[in-house]
């Protein structure tokens, strides 16, 4: 058997003449017939005119005598037989038909194989496609094989398969599964082959299953439509005498691309945008269009640009596809952004969001602007209103007059503060800054920007009719400059009520030191006299040295402040008249300064400098006795310290009254002198009281010498008690007292 087919191979080797692909085909002519029936015949294939096909290997004849017309590869003695052309593809395939071989021998066992006549494409551009064909055998207990030759591998090979039917029921219908039918792949580059077939089983069993076995090479896509019934009949053979086989063809069977490109005269890839592709199936090459082009690469301008954009499935664009020669690119529509590729960033709409965003942004901005503008307008209005108000208050409070006065005097110690300055100084009138409170208003401790500590007094509402007077007083007070008088540093007239700024005295009131601190016994007589002297000096200054006589009107220990060195500072100025006269004042009067008030003035309602002298006398008594001006603990007639003292003096029992330390430190003469001075100050008749000047002189004398008291006393009494000013000179003619912190004061004109 082996020898047998080897002989056959040898035969085709000899028999195949060397075929030269002679005619150098020119390009395809438009006149060429390109169809045979339904079959397209593209160049390099062609019919008729030699210019219509590349060379005689591609000469196709169309037999139109039969219907449908048959296309045949013209053999021209080149090929052993005519091959019917069923289909030509420019990818290098040509579908033709080939007979199947069969063994339907019904005799008992016959060892001899049935061998097909060999077929060969040696020297031609054709070979049997290994990718498209399958060697197939049909039958039960069939052995079939294919002996072939491939010049690239340079070898003879044999492939085959055995088909068996163990149980006919398992024969698969329609497809070849190995039961009743078997298939085998074939190697590439086969240019010729021969088929053999034989039976493996006895005739008896064979006849039961079917008389025939078949073997053939077939297009793998061919529907065999194989069924078990076909085995027992010969109809399979009848229907499929020929089966389609796919041939591979190359443009030139003995050249590879490298060489072909150099041979301009015979190069097959004539189209622009085409290129040469070496055959994988043996020597030879094919032409193909470059990527992005399609068409026939074997003719001029055969490769046409593929308009990828025409076919939605052939491009990968998200929105807009733009075709370009050989390729395409993607874009996004207006109002979209992105690279436009489905595999890239695609297209994202930006147009729709933008107006919304713009509207939102615009509205937001304009609202914001409106808000800011209205806030600013409101603020401006408030500021203007507040400015106007301030101005109004300033004018109402006589600010202009005061300003003029201050300007003309060019005082640099008195300042007109703005409302903001004072707000800052008191931390917006913080409650923790309050150091005193009463019928007159509130006193705050404040710190000015220059670190200076001040007392800021905010009055209660004032009577507008008294503004002029208030301003005058302020003007005069601002000029008061005595070491024992609390200094008025400035004022603020921008608020509804005038605000006064004083220097801050840190060590409390004399009242506190005498009655509350509990350290009165530690204060020496000398110191007490000094304090008394300083008070007297301050009052004398106010009465006589100031540009206009100033009556304090409310001298009391609570209005005498002491600084850290126990230096006297007579406090509180100028607003007594401005304190509205209401019922609270009466109470304050009774509670606060009862006991200090000049009884004459209280009765007549006229105030003189002597009223201050009386009050001073009471303060002096406090210093000497340590008793309060009014003390409810004492018997009824003695509640008033001044009256109590006068009575004791009459009874000659002064010593009982005096405070321990005073008694121990003072000589009898000294004590008597002090007592006499006090007594004179407390005279019911104001005119009999000494002036403050005289008091000062007396006190200074007392402090210095104990000796010439008697002479001095009488002299000074004569001297001092003569000069006096009547209450009638008091312009105001009113008395007025304010609360604990307040010191009433009036200006006498
Ligand atoms: C093509 O084949 C036909 C038929 O075999 C033949 O008559 C004709 O001469 C051939 N053409 C050429 C150019 O060889
Ligand atoms: C076996 O087959 C061969 C070839 O077909 C034939 O020549 C031969 O006569 C057959 N032998 C018998 C015994 O039938
Ligand atoms: C094959 O086809 C025949 C007729 O069409 C059917 O009777 C049989 O059952 C089928 N066999 C299989 C295995 O499908
Ligand atoms: C034929 O088939 C029968 C059973 O189906 C089997 O017993 C016999 O051995 C077979 N004959 C041959 C030659 O295979
Ligand atoms: C295959 O066979 C079925 C019936 O078995 C038939 O209807 C069908 O047309 C056949 N197909 C082909 C391609 O022959
Ligand atoms: C197989 O047998 C069935 C039934 O006899 C028939 O219709 C069909 O055409 C046959 N197929 C072939 C390929 O012969
Ligand atoms: C080009 O091809 C032709 C025809 O196949 C051949 O005769 C010629 O020798 C080739 N020329 C070269 C340079 O290979
Ligand atoms: C070359 O041909 C092979 C097989 O025919 C194919 O797979 C390949 O894509 C082709 N190359 C080009 C660039 O066309
Ligand atoms: C579109 O292209 C796809 C593949 O790219 C192809 O399968 C389909 O047939 C084409 N459709 C048309 C109408 O050209
Ligand atoms: C998307 O695919 C195309 C081919 O279909 C390719 O040319 C392009 O580079 C790809 N883009 C990205 C971003 O991967």
Automatic annotation (TrEMBL):
EGF-like domain location: 305-348
GO cellular component, one term: plasma membrane
Keyword Metal-binding: no
InterPro entries named in the record: EGF, EGF-like_Ca-bd_dom, EGF-type_Asp/Asn_hydroxyl_site, EGF_Ca-bd_CS, Kinase-like_dom_sf, NOTCH1_EGF-like, Prot_kinase_dom, Protein_kinase_ATP_BS
All residue ranges annotated as the Protein kinase domain in the record: 429-711
Binding site for ATP: 458
Molecular function, one GO term: calcium ion binding
Compartments in which it is found: Membrane
GO biological process: cell surface receptor signaling pathway
Signal peptide: 1-25
UniProt xrefs under PROSITE patterns: ASX_HYDROXYL, EGF_3, EGF_CA, PROTEIN_KINASE_ATP, PROTEIN_KINASE_DOM, PROTEIN_KINASE_ST
Transmembrane region(s): 359-381
Keyword list, A-Z: ATP-binding, Disulfide bond, EGF-like domain, Glycoprotein, Kinase, Membrane, Nucleotide-binding, Phosphoprotein, Receptor, Repeat, Serine/threonine-protein kinase, Signal, Transferase, Transmembrane, Transmembrane helix
Protein function: Serine/threonine-protein kinase that may function as a signaling receptor of extracellular matrix component. Binding to pectin may have significance in the control of cell expansion, morphogenesis and development.
Protein's name in the database: Wall-associated receptor kinase 5-like protein
Lineage, highest ranks first: Eukaryota, Viridiplantae, Streptophyta, Embryophyta, Tracheophyta
């Amino acid at each position: 058997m082996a020898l047998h087919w080897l002989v056959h191979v040898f035969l085709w080797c000899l028999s195949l003449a060397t075929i030269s692909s002679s005619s150098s085909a020119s390009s395809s002519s438009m006149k060429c017939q390109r169809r045979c029936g339904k079959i397209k015949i593209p160049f390099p294939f062609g019919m008729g005119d030699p210019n219509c096909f590349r060379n005689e290997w591609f000469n196709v004849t169309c037999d139109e005598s039969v219907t449908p017309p048959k296309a045949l590869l013209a053999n021209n003695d080149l090929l052993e037989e005519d091959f019917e052309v069923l289909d030509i593809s420019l990818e290098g395939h040509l579908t033709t038909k080939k007979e199947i071989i069969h063994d339907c021998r019904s005799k008992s066992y016959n060892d001899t194989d049935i061998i097909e006549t060999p077929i060969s494409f040696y020297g031609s551009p054709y070979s049997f496609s290994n990718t498209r064909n399958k060697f197939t055998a049909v039958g039960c207990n069939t052995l079939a094989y294919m002996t072939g030759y491939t010049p690239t591998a340079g070898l003879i090979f044999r492939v085959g398969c055995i088909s068996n039917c163990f149980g006919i029921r398992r024969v698969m219908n329609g497809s070849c599964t190995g039961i009743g039918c078997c298939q085998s792949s074939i190697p590439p580059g086969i240019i010729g082959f021969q088929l053999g077939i034989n039976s493996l089983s006895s005739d008896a069993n064979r006849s039961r299953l079917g008389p025939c076995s078949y073997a053939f090479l077939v297009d793998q896509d061919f529907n065999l439509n194989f069924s078990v019934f076909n085995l027992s009949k010969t109809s399979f053979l009848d229907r499929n005498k020929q089966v389609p086989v796919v041939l591979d063809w190359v443009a030139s069977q003995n050249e590879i691309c490298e060489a072909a490109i150099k041979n301009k005269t015979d190069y097959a890839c004539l189209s622009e945008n085409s290129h040469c592709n070496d055959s994988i199936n043996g020597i030879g090459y094919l032409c193909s269009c470059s990527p992005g082009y399609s068409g026939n690469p074997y003719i001029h301008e055969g490769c046409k640009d593929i308009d990828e954009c025409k076919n939605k499935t052939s491009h990968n664009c998200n929105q807009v596809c733009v075709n370009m020669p050989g390729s395409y690119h993607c874009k996004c529509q207006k109002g979209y952004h992105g690279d436009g590729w489905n595999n890239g960033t695609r297209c994202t709409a930006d147009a729709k969001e933008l107006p919304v965003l713009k509207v939102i942004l615009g509205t937001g901005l304009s609202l914001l602007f409106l808000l800011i503008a209205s806030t600013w307008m409101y603020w401006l209005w408030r500021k203007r209103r507040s400015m106007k108000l301030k101005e109004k208050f300033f004018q109402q409070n006589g600010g202009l007059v005061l300003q003029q006065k201050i300007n003309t005097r060019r005082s640099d110690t008195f300042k007109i503060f703005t409302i903001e300055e004072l707000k800052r100084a008191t931390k917006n009138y913080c409650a923790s800054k309050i150091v005193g409170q009463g019928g007159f208003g509130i006193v705050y401790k404040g710190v000015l920007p220059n670190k200076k500590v001040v007392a800021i007094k905010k009055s209660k509402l004032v009577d507008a009719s008294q503004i002029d007077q208030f301003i005058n007083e302020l003007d005069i007070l601002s000029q008061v400059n005595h070491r024992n008088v609390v200094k008025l540093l400035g004022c603020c007239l921008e608020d509804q009520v005038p605000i006064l700024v004083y220097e801050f005295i840190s060590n409390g009131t004399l009242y506190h030191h005498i009655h509350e601190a509990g350290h009165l016994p530690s204060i020496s007589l000398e110191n007490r006299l000094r304090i008394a002297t300083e008070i007297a000096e301050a009052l004398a200054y106010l009465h006589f040295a100031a540009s206009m006589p100033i009556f304090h009107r409310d001298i009391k220990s609570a209005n005498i402040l002491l600084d850290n060195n126990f230096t006297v500072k007579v406090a509180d100025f100028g607003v007594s008249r401005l304190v509205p006269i209401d019922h609270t004042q009466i109470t304050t009067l009774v509670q606060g300064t009862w006991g200090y008030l000049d009884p004459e003035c209280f009765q007549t309602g006229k105030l003189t400098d002597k009223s201050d002298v009386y009050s001073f006398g009471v303060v002096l008594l406090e210093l000497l006795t340590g008793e309060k001006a009014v003390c409810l603990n004492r018997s009824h007639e003695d509640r008033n310290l001044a009256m109590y003292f006068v009575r004791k003096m009459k009874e000659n029992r002064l010593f009982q009254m005096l405070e321990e330390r005073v008694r121990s430190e003072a000589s009898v003469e000294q004590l008597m002198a002090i007592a006499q001075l006090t007594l004179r100050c407390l005279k019911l008749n104001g005119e009999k009281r000494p002036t403050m000047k005289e008091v000062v002189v007396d006190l200074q004398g007392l402090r210095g010498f104990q000796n010439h008291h008697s002479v001095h006393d009488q002299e000074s009494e004569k001297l001092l008690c003569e000069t006096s000013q009547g209450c009638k000179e008091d312009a105001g003619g009113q008395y007025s007292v304010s609360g604990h912190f307040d010191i009433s004061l009036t200006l006498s004109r």
